[in-house]
Design goal:
By secondary structure, the chain is α/β, with parallel strands linked by helices. 40% of the residues lie in helices and 15% in strands.
Length: 261
């Protein structure tokens, strides 16, 4: 890596990295190739399999199982990074949407959605972003260097899907949170940004989502690595003057008026 993209000697935390085919793991893999040591987390023991994969590729990686909807988990993750490396430079908050440990649905139109469903989705997708930011930003501000990147979605900030009011509200709120934090942190050398993926070809993508990707201007869904590349740039030294932004990674889908090909 050149200096503009070199994270050697820095450490990173990536949440929501349990899936081998997801954005979180693709991001962790890229950050290790950029030279960073990484701590990755998910809600289940599969995170240890991801650690083994990163280590087998030459990365310095550790993993912790944790539920970020619990208020103390983010603090525990930050403390672990500080114990291992004595620093925490980059945080990518990718946890949210759904979890393999999730048992209750969080979708539905507002006339049938219970308040508990609403609260559960906001807890998973927005409260976790707040808790992670609250835990990591003081460390970065004290060091006068840091990168916080939140993985939002085009659904909410730019578009919306039927039957997903809670998810859209949470992801739009995440972008607002990132912008507010960016204003407060900029003078300390810390940037806060978001990325907004569109249709992504992960292992959990449904046939309907796959079909929607085919109808996008590029005629396909994005690969997780393509989203990770945007996150990696925002986490790099070269993005030092970019903060409070939401980088859309959707193959032009949000600007297309026509959907059929």
């Amino acid at each position: 890596m050149t200096g503009e993209f070199d994270l050697s000697g820095r450490s990173a935390l990536v949440t929501g990295a349990g899936s081998a085919t997801g954005i979180g793991f693709a991001t962790a893999d890229l950050l290790t190739r950029m030279g960073a040591s990484v701590l990755i987390t998910s809600t289940t023991d599969r995170i240890h399999d991801r650690v083994k994969e990163l280590v087998s590729r030459g990365g310095d990686a550790h993993g912790i199982v944790g539920d970020l909807t619990e208020a103390t988990t983010a603090l525990r993750l930050v403390a672990a990074a500080l114990e291992i490396w004595g620093r925490l430079d980059v945080v990518v908050h990718n946890a949210g949407m759904t979890s393999v440990a999730q048992t209750q649905p969080e979708s539905g139109t507002i006339d049938v959605m219970a308040y508990a469903q609403w609260r559960s989705s906001l807890s998973r997708n927005l409260d976790t972003a707040f808790l992670v930011a609250q835990a990591c930003l003081p460390v970065m501000i004290a060091a006068r260097w840091g990168r916080l990147v939140m993985v939002s979605s085009v659904s909410g900030p730019l578009m919306a899907m039927r039957g997903e009011p809670a998810y859209a509200a949470a992801k739009a709120g995440m972008v607002g949170l990132a912008r507010a934090l960016a204003i407060d942190s900029a003078v300390h050398g810390v940037t806060v940004n978001a990325v907004a993926p569109g249709w992504i070809a992960t292992g959990s993508q449904t046939p309907h989502e796959h079909a929607q990707g085919l109808a996008s201007p590029m005629g396909r869904s994005a690969r997780p690595e393509e989203v990770a590349a945007s996150i990696g740039w925002l986490a790099s030294p070269s993005a030092s003057y970019v903060t409070g932004q939401c980088l859309v990674v959707d193959g032009g889908n949000s600007i297309a008026e026509e959907r059929s090909r």
